[in-house]
Amino acid sequence: MQFLSAASAWLFVSLLAIAAMYILKKKYRDTEVASHLLWRRMLQEQEANRPWQRLRSRWLLLLQLLAASLLVLALMEPVVMKPHSSDELAVLVLDRSVSMTALSRDETASNGKTRFELAVEAAKDWMDSQPGGRPIRVIATGDVPVEIAASAGNRQELYRALDELMPYYGRTDHTAALSLADSLHHGRSGGVTIVFTDGKWRDAEEANGLQLYHPLQIKRVGLDSDTHNGSILHFSLRPDAARPGYHQAAVTVRNDSDKAREYTVEIYSVLGDRPLEQSASRNIVIAPGEWGSAELSGLAPAAYYKARLLPLNDSVRTDNTAYGFPVIQRSSQALVVSKEGNLFLEKALLLSGVVPVKSSPDSVPPSGEQAEGIDWIVADGTYEQLQKDEAWSALLKNKPLWLIDHPENDGSSSVPAGTTVQTQEHPVTSYMTFSDTHIGRMHKLGQTDGDWGEAVLTYGGVPAILAGNVDGKPRLRYTFKLQDTDLPLRPEFPVLVFQSAEWMSGGTQGELGTAVAGDKLDLSFHAEAEYAEWETVELAGAGIGQEQRMKERMPAAGASGAIEAPEIPGLYRLQEHGKSGELLASRYLAVTAHPDELQPAAELRLMGIDQEDQTGSGEAGELPAAPSPLLSWAVVLILVVLLAEWEVYRRGHAS
């Protein structure tokens, strides 16, 4: 027998209260009588009410203790496990998150199978072992879980739905999928949920705390030791100052293996329909769990650039490829207004293709052509002082503004209560984790200090980075002083400055840039465009040969409003057509998997009823036991005991 609410056992202390009522009964006054022969019954009653007496066997006490014990057992929700019936509903949950695209360790050859393919095969094998009339429903995970098939007799329909299922490269909500599967059993007797997964869930902690009310069986696919994955986290381009028309690239790579590995980063230049031409390559050795960066120069002019990570026998192929587009040849100019200077920020801006123009808040602001050449302004701890100057204040209103606070040790600042980091999905914080980053003091924002934007980074419960727009101009605010943190010493800092500069510049890429698979894109189209559609140029990890480029076209939402990005990582062209079908415009879009899904995931440890953790061993058709509640029996016994107690009390047999 098992208990669904074992924590209710603490209510057994109520039995002590019942016993104390008999121990602490009222004591009567001593009374002199002529003879005790006629008062024997009164003497017995007086003895029964003497406090701190030894408990005696009384029917009424025993029945009350028994009733209280049964009531506590009922609150503990007792169940007994019994074998499942083969005609009960089975809900299959197919995990199709990014980690399921990893190749098994023993099958890293080009014809190897992914964990997702192994999960589909395992689901088919399980269905083959079941009786033909058993009802089966299939759920696929995703941003929102969906039921893809339900059948009680036609197994071919289920097989066809499984064959058409594809991995999902966006953010996967496994907890919602488990809740949906568990809810499908409501109103039915019995039933089981079977999850086919590798157990690598981004939301494993939330799922582990989920209370399930029906039996759960987990069938794992893939090996726990096949963690030998390298990922391209960031691929940025900037013009080569020494060679006009050429570019320099910076590639950030993370090693998720359990040992140090040597990677080769290759950059290919693509122009028109010419075959891919390798422009540069660089070897880099990265320790397990660490990051590494490689800088490559001399990239020939191209329509787009492709970065590829070798070796190819990697677990996940989709994160071994990244695409970049040439930036506008004219470098942005940023006016950095600072009292003491900021060397780390200036160097990071230069690496991002931004020319910093240093100035002091006590100097005269630029004007005329000099002011026209400034693209945006960085106020490094000088915003309050600049606002007091009429000339500086007018310049700040006409330019995009990046504020960096210098909080003082007074009431206008606060020390974060902890180191918890929360990031919002935003171009400024993409691919950033801020793990182990220390921020000592932060500026307290007033009611109007940040009403123009949203907090894209929160540190210790305090907004750390805000991004938004004021009068159509980008605005950014760091509520901490860079010199008071260890952020400039971390590999993420150049990436953060680059993405911040991109936000301040309003985007310097002539193409559509990069988007997460399946995201909604708010784009502007050609004035005469009648419709738009996607053309697949190349799928990530599919190779670099011209013969492997995909030509399948996918319909888009139309030429107005939001349009959905393709669901598979790779390189695509958005083609806009007129009323007669003529091509009006064509722009590239690089699609990647969701960055959160590429992070190392925690292990799944679900606390479900009768959970079974299998790795492919055991009989395929073996069914877990199902809980049968005993609550109704407990209620019946409580009523019987209460009736017996009333009968004892009514007849006066208290002793």
UniProtKB/TrEMBL annotation:
Residues 88-276 form the VWFA domain. It comes from the Bacteria. It comes from Paenibacillus pinisoli. The lineage of its organism: Bacteria, Bacillati, Bacillota, Bacilli, Bacillales. Keywords: Membrane, Transmembrane, Transmembrane helix. Signal peptide: none annotated. Pfam families: BatA, VWA_2. The chain crosses the membrane at residues 6-24, 59-76. This is VWA domain-containing protein. InterPro entries: Aerotolerance_reg_N, VWF_A, vWFA_dom_sf. The keyword Cell membrane does not apply.
